[in-house]
Amino acid sequence: MEETIRFSLNGKKTEIKIDPTQTLLWVLRNQLGLTGTKYGCGMGFCGACTVLLNKEPVRSCMLPVGDVAGKELITIEGLGTKEKLHPVQKAFVDHDALQCGYCTPGMIMTATGLLLKKPSPTRQEIIEGMEDNLCRCGAHIRIIDAIQTAADEMKGGKP
Amino acid sequence: MRKVIIDKKMESSGNRRRVMIPRRDFFKYLGGGIVVLVAGCKTKPAEEARGQERRSVPKDFNAFVHVSEDGTVTCFTGKIEMGQGPITALRQEMADEMDVPFENVKMVMGDTDLCPWDDGTWGSTSVREYGQAMRQAAAEARSILFILASERLKVPVDQLEVTKGVIFVKNNPDKKASYAQLTEGKKIKRQVTGNPAMKGASDFKIITKPFKRTDSLEKVTGEAKYAGDFKMPGMLHARILRPPSYRAKLVSADTSEAEKIKGIQVVRDNDFIAVLHENRDMADAAIVKVKAEFSSDEMKVNDKTVYDHYFKSGTKGAVVNKSGDISEGRKSAHMVIESEFHHAYVAHATIETHAAFAVKDGDRIKIWVSAQTPFLTQETIAAQLNMPLDKIHVIVPYVGGGFGGKGDNPQAVEAARITMLTGKPVMVEYTREEEFLYDTTRPAALIKLASGIDKSGRITFWDYNAYYCGDRGADTIYNVPHQLTTVYEELENEPPVHPFATGPWRAPGNSNNTFAREMQMTLMASKAGIDQLDFRLKNLADEKMIAVLKAAAGKFGYKPEKPHSGRGFGIACGTDVDTWVALFAEVKVDKSTGRVQVVRVACAQDMGLCVNPQGSTLQMEGCITMGLGYSLTEEIRFEGGKKLNTNYDTYELPRFSWVPAIETVILNHPEQPPHGGGEPAVIAMGGAIAAGIYDATGAVLYDMPMTPAKVLEALKKV
After folding, report:
1. Do B657 and A127 touch (CB under 8 A)?
2. Selection from B80, B83, B203 nearest residue B138 by Cα
3. Domain boundaries in chain B?
4. Mean pLDDT of B34-52
């Protein structure tokens, strides 16, 4: 049964008529045209589909779209643009913290969620926070370094 | 109008079937300028030979460079970008050879209408083979520009120089002409003659300099497009009825329940059944409602019995290397060590699953595919759908990891087939479960190895038998007077050995062979009472191998010690894609749980000319990190043709907490040709980790992955 779902999507008031049991990931990708959020495993194991819901990283492949009603949803497209990158995006570029790039949006969203909660994470806290995001190309050490750099940047200076 | 000074007619290449824009249309597509075509690719004899088997027309232009009227240089290549970074390295090579700023080079990759034929992006060939051919084409283009400049400036060519796309008179730099000025209004075609020389090492300005990835801006913003990201009004998502195991055949199917879902369309073409819906969730819901019965005649083998099965199947080995006399070598041995190494089947498990999006484009099909092989995919679609090759247009956008798994693209044939049947744009995107079950896997390995040492610690013989994992990396590499290498492979007209489809996996076979060889070295060093590095150096004649071992040892801070030092240090070295690699690892073993943590790794690589040290470093780090997986956890479990791993919960990839500190050294030789960089470092992880476990605990691991259970088992035998 279709319902009207209202939520904030990347800072914009959004209203869609849709069956609320539909998977958020596919709604984002197919109905809303936001293909930066990736399908990886469909079971929440890899993190490629991570988005921020009320600033919390969530797996969009496991979430019915009805659950975003009244909430604030941010996808990789809403984080920054090529012209004005978010500090986490910029740090990934600066550190070459990616190869094929397919897990990258999910990595960046998870890292952003982590930094919102812990603005000054230790290296160990970064590792723990990123542990359930999978990267097959092996960009891990650069991703950790990038997140450390972004944390410093977001505090407005080097510690 | 300016006279066109070079208009050498391109020769017909005979009975070509290859699709390319018709030659007269080059300039229609490109605008005016200079096009340089490379006839045949002289650096790729093996590729050509393979091409001949597969295609009736192997001798065709296979590379070109275009200098446009605005001075932009475009590199067209059938190679694709799946993370290994040719998009950056090839651009560096083109910019340097053409003497234009890096920013002025445009890359067009993996489009069968626009790019020259290519056999596929694998084997670390983008720079070492294609790059060389492309540089030659660029050198040719540059020489044409010099001739044009000479005519325009009325100065002999030898008095001209070029910088940043502007040719000027050496002693009068104000007298100049830019590439844009020189090509304006021109339509010049020329085949590569091979005469203008490529730049030598002393002339490199961009090659050998570290360049960061050029694709990262698109990738961090989510703008980068992968095959699954394309869409079109009216498109349908397809889910396909698939057999539960490899040899299962469809007996009957009832789609009536699925058809009750609103908006579902069912396509049936003999045994091929697909459910389509504009909404992916609905297609997912429909496919599970198809009631199907399959017959099955699977091989009686599983992940435990496969090694015995391999051994029994291996009756006809091929000797690939023989020197001296093994029985002589055995006689002169003071000690003989016999080992049997196992390594499980492993998955590519790229985070992007196989995907394809097909649309009808007039009487053609246009299809975006997550493929390492745009042209092979085009051929396969044409053959399977019985369509002319030139009616299939394959475009490969960014690929979300390949590692050999995206050479085969059955999903592209499926998408094209459904599009032909329905006339609708169709997306086929494998689920993770489909990816595990229907992607090819790297073959398991059984390696039986006997070797001996004399009293001084020199290897006297080496009798090496590799079963069904391939012979890449099976070279002895050490200085051994009596050696024999026998390789067993699946043979035509013999029963199949593998219970499901196998295929190449990053450095195919080499990780298995290097693991076996290097662990055997570690065991022999121990028997001889000699440090594992000293033992290798004592038995090596290959100076490049010695150099990379010493470089890695230096980076690692390795000091020779008696074997089984307790430090947890392990070493492995080898060659892959003409590159020499040595890797030192420090591991910690939790003796109560059997869990192994790799603490740090130092790796040195001699890859001849290293075009992009930054990109190559990324590849070394990636290989090292990926190597943790096949070494420690990754294993396809199966019963006959039914694989039991269906998602990442039962197939464990390396995680952040596993990753060691990594240090890398590249021994750059700009005066030499480039060798491969995408794969070499992956080969050495298994052997180095096994040697590290042995050094730490005395436990000998003969089986990969070295899971906690296997480590505990091995510890019991210490």
Report:
1. yes
2. B203
3. 23-216, 227-296+354-429, 306-345+441-716
4. 46
